[in-house]
Structure prediction request, 708 residues.
Amino acid sequence: MNASELKSTITGVANPVNTELPLWKQPDATPFVRIENITKKFDDFTAVDNVSLNIYKKELFCLLGGSGSGKSTLLRMLAGFENPTSGRIIIDGVDMEGIQPWNRPINMMFQSYALFPHLSVADNIAFGLKRQGASKHDVKTRVAEMLDMVQLGHLGKRKPHQLSGGQRQRVALARSLVKRPKLLLLDEPLGALDKKLREETQFEIMNLQEDLGVTFVVVTHDQEEAMTLATRIGVMNQGLIVQTDEPHDVYEYPNSRFVAEFIGSVNLFEGFVTEDNVDSVRIESKEAGCPLFVAHGISCAPQQRVHVALRPEKINMTRVKPAQDDNCMKGEIIEIAYMGSLSVYRVRLQSGKEIRVTQPNFARDMGERFTWNEQVFLSWDVDSSVVLTS
Amino acid sequence: MSSLSGNVWLSGFSTWKARFISLRNINWGRFSVISVPYLWLAVFFFIPFLVVFKISLSESAIAVPPYTDLLDFDMEEAYLNIKLNLGNYLYLWEDSFYFDAYVSSIKIAAVSTFFTLLVGFPIAYLIARSDDKYRGILLALVILPFWTSFLLRVYAWVGLLKKQGLVNEVLMSMGIINEPLTMLQTDFAVYIGIVYTYLPFMILPLYSALEKMDISLLEAAEDLGARPIQSFFMITVPLAMPGIIAGCMLVFIPAVGEYVIPALLGGSDTLMIGRVLWDEFSLNRDWPMASAVATVMLVFLVLPIMLIRNKSGKEEGM
Prediction:
């Protein structure tokens, strides 16, 4: 697939200047964290179900999933707070079985931050170093360094309850980084921050990660957070990792209906394959009301029921019928939401199915705007949609 | 321009006025709410204390009530004689018996408070960490002994600890001891009685402090390299400190003045100020002396507590 090479240059991942393939694309690279067939059962509930995953050095890996998907349990097993029912976790070549949390080369930033309320900011950060038996002088300089790094140099004497949410988050980050862990685990790192602060902090975390070269594993339920932060995303559902890919691939090439619907919004058309070529498929769909032509091959049985996934922003909306018969539907606008940078339309097709279309607002005044109850044609390129067999 | 500044002035005036009115309203509301406990304390604590203090400055007399008046108004000469007798306090100071009783009371109370804490902490910890389903039942079990009379419960210990009591019988039948142990009428029995009686007062404040604690703090400590024992002393104990202080106060203060437990379980040599007080009051019928003993005990207890409260209050304010 030619597009995949294009993708990696666009997203640029860890180092945009580096033209080398990222580690996870090199077949002979040794993974830093190896999760092998991990299963965790609580009584008869299986929280994590036979998950295997490789995470490479200096990655910022996101575990993305809804509540109860097992992502937090997986993170807690990495930290050592839960013991896997079966399977192995190997970090930097060392099997973690039987190694207690306080002996692991791992630190974690908790969702609640878990700052010690009776200790000052500086003492919170120093806590880990003191347990290590670092000398007084070392503790002092390291704490000062970390405070400067998170731009809280002037607040070292404060207690956690005297800080704002964003400051607490940065103290938690400093505390988890001060021991220079090989692996940093972050549990919903931005969950408690407001939108503006989230965006700022997102980039701060990314920069920090690049500067320090620590491997990060982030757990989040927020797909936007995962998309911006991650080098790769592991999408979890019901204890399974359903897809592991770079953010761009997860969005553009979801491998299942779950992933397509979980990340971003998507229009799904149910249909069956009428023409199955090596590098293309044609699908007949009653819902769509037109033949759907997709420019990638799939492995499927003839006449198999499949879903075609189409992102709202990939659709081109016109008043005049475009010169194509495939991938061209007629419908009526029933709802419009003007969101500034783009507009979201709800279009009802002749089959009665309602789909979502977003159009960027290129110009300030777009001539005659689309309006309610207008008849429109929706069309898209052959490589804009994806066929999902599961 | 002038109209604008006039508006500003007007609005400033009206907010000032509104604030004044609301302040006046709040003050009355506050006053009536706060005054209830203060009134309670004044009527049932402070005034009785003044009465006791007054009696302590009088002399014992064969009369009803058995002490002399402080004020004596001489009708003929129109003299108001105020006679303050400091002899009781002087006697307290001179006779080492009283001092020994105070020290011994404080020692017994401190040792039993320590053991109450030692027993109470794990129980409170267990309840705070137990499943929501069982928490209510466990707490009810802690309070359950209050449903029977305190006196009965202390008497029950007599039955358990005496020579032919249950404890001795069991130990002898198991062959651990050959002769019955003398447990009753010793300081040991007093310790057991106090620990047993005051345990709920220790457990409840400890529980409420431990229950509030976020379990992820312990995980964070472990994650940062602290072993469980370290995180217990560096995280759990400091965070439970308000509960520890409250529990220790609730046990220590009444234990110092305890009368029933040393009277029933203690020996004749178990010296506690509560017993001294009772002896002065009922056997010697020396009300002024008993009052002096009570006043000094109060000062002994209240001063350090006020210091501790003051310190912890300051820390919390920081």
